Structure formats: structure tokens, C-alpha cells
Amino acid sequence: PCLVDWLSSGVSAAYSFFDPQDPRRGLGTHMILWLADAAARRGLPYVYLGYWVEGSDRMNYKIRYQPIEKLGRAGWERFDPPIPAHAGEHAQGEQSITRDREGRVLK
């Protein structure tokens, strides 16, 4: 299940959970891709994955989904953090997904 907030500019993933017995299934990835698709179908340009804390292994999966913006002193700005080799759900064969502002998958 995934608890979300629908906003005027996008969807915010407030909380999601699943049984991690088989991390190769990539359920977290599935939820994020579902959110991106649902936002695009509603014409919403953004999917908010919440806070990211640099160096937190539990949050590294968030930087796999790009482009990323961060809120700085001058407002929202593009952010390109390095992606650690171990970022993600430890699912073999999974790849980062990049979407444009309309939600289309970029190759």
C-alpha cells in the first residue's frame, strides 16, 4: 500500500510499505513508477519522494529517479548527486528511470 497526497502540482509519496521478503521483486520501484504514471495521467508534472538525507543507505533509492530538484536559498534548483553503486532496493537488473516534466520515460 502507498499513502499519497494529491497536490495541485503533483503527487507526494507520504508513506509506503510492503513485505521485503523478496527484494528482487522491486515493489518500491513499482510504487514509484505507479506514482509517476498516475501523476502524468492527471497532468501533474511532479512526483515528490520526500526528504533525502545524503549518506543514508535507506534513502539512497530516491536518487535513482532523476531529474532531481532540491529546495535551496534561491528556491527549487536542479540537483545531480552522485548515485552510489548500492543505491536502490538491491534488485539485480533494475535500472534508473528518468522522466521528463510531462512524465514520459526518457531513454
Q: Could you walk me through the main structural features you see in this protein, from its secondary elements to its overall organization?
A:
It is a single chain. With about 110 residues, the protein is an alpha+beta fold. The chain has one helix and seven strands. A three-stranded mixed sheet has the order 1-2-3, with helices on one face. A two-stranded antiparallel sheet has the order 4-5. Helix 1 links the parallel strand 2 (about 10-15) and strand 3 (about 45-50). The longest helix is centred in the N-terminal third of the chain and has 15 residues, at about 25-40. The protein is globular. The termini are far apart.
What features would you highlight for this structure?
107 residues; alpha+beta; 14% helix
